Amino acid sequence: MMPQIDCVVTQSMGENSYILYDPERQDCLLIDPGDDPDEIRAAMNNRHPAAILLTHGHFDHIGAVGALAEPDTEILIHENDAPMLTNPRLNASGLIGATITAPAATRTFKDGDSLTLAGITLKVIHTPGHTPGSSCFLCGDALFTGDTVMGGGVGRTDLPGGSEAQLRASLQRLMPLLSTHTVYGGHG
């Protein structure tokens, strides 16, 4: 069964935060809650965040994690981006003159992992280039791409850990999925 997918576009950076849930359950999965925790919480419709899944560790994708995570909420990110959660220098929040951090990951993932969270199964596709740990999540016919692929383009590679060559290779890997799946990007 495909989960219900709701999107909240955060105001500060126009980042897409996703809420995935089975309407028959009282929990949900959050992908990239970047900002506006009150708006995201309202859109969760009294559901408990069983897990917060992050496509990468940049500040605009992690800013609301601390406000939304409950004591038993899992926080998951690729092992290569885990240090970005607690280090403002690595997560690029200095670009906006801020010091943004999130709680440390409770679990990391790697390419090919299958994750079942809030009754929803996703497959991890590691797509480095935007960051060393950038990852996409495949869920049925939905592909959550973070900033690897987003409305009107691809993620920038000029921030710490970015690599144009790695991003090109990641895009080649994703190409077959982009025409057969609904793409849910990080912006746009």
Q: In a few lines, what is going on in this structure?
A:
This protein is of the alpha/beta class. It is 16% helix and 32% strand. It has helices spanning 37-43, 59-62, 65-68, 164-178; strands at 4-9, 16-21, 27-31, 48-53, 74-78, 107-109, 114-117, 120-126, 135-139, 142-146, 149-150, 153-154, 182-185.
Structure overview:
It is a single chain. The chain has 188 residues and is an alpha/beta fold. The chain has a single domain, classed as 4-Layer Sandwich (Metallo-beta-lactamase, Chain A). Helices cover 16% and strands 32% of the residues. The protein is built from four helices and 13 strands. A six-stranded mixed sheet has the order 1-2-3-4-5-6, covered by helices on one side. Strand 2 (16-21) and strand 3 (27-31) form a beta hairpin. The longest helix is centred in the last third of the chain and has 15 residues, at 164-178. It is globular, with a radius of gyration of 15 Å. The two termini are 27 Å apart. The mean pLDDT is 96.
Strand content: 25-35%
**Biggest sheet, open or closed, and with what strands and sense?**
6 strands, mixed
| CATH arch. level architecture | 4-Layer Sandwich
Radius of gyration: 15 Å
- The assembly state of the depicted protein chains is single chain
Taking the alpha carbons of the first and last residues, their distance comes to 27 Å
Would you list the SSEs in sequence order as H and E?
A: EEEHEHHEEEEEEEEHE
CATH class (first level) name = Alpha Beta
| Order of strands across the main sheet | 1-2-3-4-5-6
Write out the CATH superfamily name.
Ribonuclease Z/Hydroxyacylglutathione hydrolase-like
- Structural class, please? alpha/beta
Average residue-wise pLDDT: 96
User: In the residues, how many domains can be counted?
Assistant: 1
- Count of helical segments? 4
Helix coverage percent of residues?
A: 10-25%
Low-confidence stretches: none
Shape, principal axes of CA atoms: globular
CATH topology: Metallo-beta-lactamase, Chain A
Number of strands: 13
